[in-house]
Amino acid sequence: MVNQIEVIEDHGQLYTRALEIIADQLKDGAKVFGLATGGTMLPLYEEICKSDLDFTQCTSFNLDEYVGLAKEHPESYHSYMKEQLFQSKPFKQSFLPDGQSQNSQAEAQRYEELLKEKGQDFQLLGLGENGHIGFNEPGTAFTSETHIVQLQQSTREANARFFNSIDEVPSYAITMGIHSILRAKKILVIALGEKKRVALEALRSGTQTEQIPATSLQKHPNVTVLTDIHID
Ligand code: GLP
């Protein structure tokens, strides 16, 4: 069971707390940061950009990228990260899967090898409404490494708000696997709003099931969850 769950209703205070956790990581010598995308991370990246934190000696790895979107596409995770974080807070090196690779399978393997070699000290995570982490949809093996995934219709619908229409939302993505995520030494989950309640309750319940990928986090010894939802 994940027991470091901090409920902070005020979003300003919640993101300040997240920033503090990241600052502590830097202070403790963390060098490799796993990063996430999604609406939830936007205020956090804004806080980081305003802060005096320095990542120029650090490496970042993003969780995932859509297959088939050009890096320059405004909704690619490459564009998201550049705009929201990297142009203000550069890292020494930043890696994201290449969603345009001719051979996605080989790209997933290359990414996994690089990730294994560097090893995340810290991993930032959001939760999908269906309990996904990264783009690991329900049913993904807890032993999975970086791989290609077909996105569920519900995930495409949830992410359609960032595109002109759902038809533009890619159907496939490259994502770190669940095992790749769990290798991080420390994990910070941020999950806000009622839509994340089911995933949060599962994470807290003690049940581990591949039908709810977030429950894999119960296997990890150092997970902090920041949320605005009260769960019993
Ligand atoms: C996408 C990302 C996830 C993210 C999730 C939640 O599916 N691949 O990493 O956690 O969205 O997004 P939001 O923060 O917008 O709710």
Tag the structure with descriptive keywords.
single chain, 232 residues, alpha/beta, Rossmann fold, 3-stranded antiparallel beta sheet, 7 helices, globular, binds 2-amino-2-deoxy-6-O-phosphono-alpha-D-glucopyranose
Structure, described:
The protein has 232 residues and is an alpha/beta fold. It is 31% helix and 18% strand. It has one domain: Rossmann fold (3-Layer(aba) Sandwich), CATH 3.40.50.1360. The chain is built from 7 helices and 10 strands. The relative contact order is 0.19. The mean pLDDT is 96. The structure holds 2-amino-2-deoxy-6-O-phosphono-alpha-D-glucopyranose (GLP). Residues 36-40, 63-64, 126-128, 134-135, 155, 159 line the site of 2-amino-2-deoxy-6-O-phosphono-alpha-D-glucopyranose (GLP). Residues 36-40, 63-64, 126-128, 134-135, 155, 159 line the site of 2-amino-2-deoxy-6-O-phosphono-alpha-D-glucopyranose.
